[in-house]
Amino acid sequence: MFLSVFDIFKIGIGPSSSHTMGPMLAAARFLDDLRAAPFRAHRLSAALHGSLAFTGIGHATDRAVILGLAGFNPDTYEAGAAETALATIRASGRVTPPGLNALVFDPAQDLVFDYDQPLPLHANGLSLSAHDAQGDRILQRRYYSIGGGFVMSEAEMLAGKPADEGAPVPFPFKTAAEMLAMARTSGKSIAAMKAANEAARGSGALAPGIARIWEVMAACMTRGLTTGGTLPGGLNVRRRAQAIHDALLAERGTNLAAPHEINDWVAAYAMAVNEENAAGGQVVTAPTNGAAGVVPAVIRYWLSHVPGAAPARLPDFFLTAAAIGGLVKFNASISGAEAGCQAEVGTAAAMAAAGLCAVLGGSPAQIENAAEIALEHHLGMTCDPIKGLVQVPCIERNGLGAIKAISAASLALRGDGSHLVPLDAAIETMRQVGADMHEKYKETALGGLAVNVPNC
């Protein structure tokens, strides 16, 4: 089992990795198949199923599919060009993707929200089709957006793996127990083992790549901390990170500050990121967009508030966090539509706790303990966004997730790494709870806060 640090941490756009980035990437894969096909298509159509249908408008899934079929990608997305393209497509009823002829695609007619027939392999399914001039379907592909911007075709889902597994790695741990055993045998840290795996897979220069990830995260946070106003979508949610941050800056050096004020700093950092995500800005999956604020908030806490913190240690933080995120994804889920918010913010908190514990000098056993504490205390958390928007309760939830992550790392460092509940048990429990959770609590906006709070 191998997931690169650049699989877990991907640069993309808001508001959702599974509902925005994933569908856009699926459309890109479909265009690749069209380019390789021996026939010439005339018209395209798309259908959104399950959670992609129920919360698609709030998550901008329709926009993502339209733009994806026009050739846009999350990592090179430009907002101005996207708005121009959307207006042109809606007016002309056509898309002209690079390398293909102009194709009829009228979003009002050719993009369907299917609320009645979810696809069988995952809650986030979409069908993309090409038709000839007579209207006959000549190509159809089904894709599943499985969380964190990961997309699998129907064939890959049935096979249980992506088409390309890649070269073997020196530390192929699939469970936390295996990870700890390999750390003991090799004498290496979790970050060092992860780095060796990255090198074996030819992931490229780690330090510059990780520096770029942090650069985008930090820029996103800065925008959020300096931007006020109201978020789009109709809930009229006010941005709060800027006001909180400004107040905290004003209180510095005065007798107004209380010891627990550090929680407000951390929450402001996390909320700033998720307010940017809710506004459709550039973010980094960590491991998802809905949970994108937790990891950068904990990193910012470490760099700005912990004596002795050094940016040179950032690779250790990211590599350790990615190792934990990979374990959760492989053995359970990081998709809110599949397992609730425990799979998103819970996983992010576990990753952040592990990364912080690592850079504060924790042993592999203490790091595993930190991740377990953070995940355990998110078990059962539902995904019930009001109006299907990644705003309430998502933005505040990231702030609290970051605070829990810091507490988990601190508790783990107070011990020697021995503890009762293994991380593997917490991950398996999360998987079981997600399977048992009613569908209305898994990113459908049909239960929980989404129905108990007026949303318009």
Q: Outline of this structure?
A:
With 456 residues, the protein is α+β, with helices and mostly antiparallel strands. It contains 20 helices and nine strands. It has two domains: 17-159, D-3-phosphoglycerate dehydrogenase, domain 3 (60s Ribosomal Protein L30, Chain: A), CATH 3.30.1330; 176-452, no CATH class.
Keyword list:
2 domains, single chain, globular, two-stranded antiparallel sheet, 5-stranded mixed β-sheet, alpha+beta, 60s Ribosomal Protein L30, Chain: A
Ordered list of secondary-structure elements with their pairings:
Elements: H1 5-8, E1 11-13, H2 17-36, E2 43-50, H3 51-54, H4 61-69, H5 79-92, E3 94-95, E4 103-104, H6 107-110, E5 111-114, E6 124-131, E7 137-147, E8 150-153, H7 154-159, H8 176-186, H9 190-200, H10 206-225, H11 241-251, H12 261-278, E9 282-284, H13 294-305, H14 314-331, H15 336-339, H16 345-359, H17 364-376, H18 394-413, H19 423-436, H20 449-452
Parallel strand pairs: 2-5
Antiparallel strand pairs: 1-9, 2-6, 3-4, 6-7, 7-8
Helix pairs in contact: 2-4, 9-14, 10-12, 11-12, 12-13, 12-18, 13-16, 13-18, 14-16, 16-17, 16-18, 17-18, 17-19
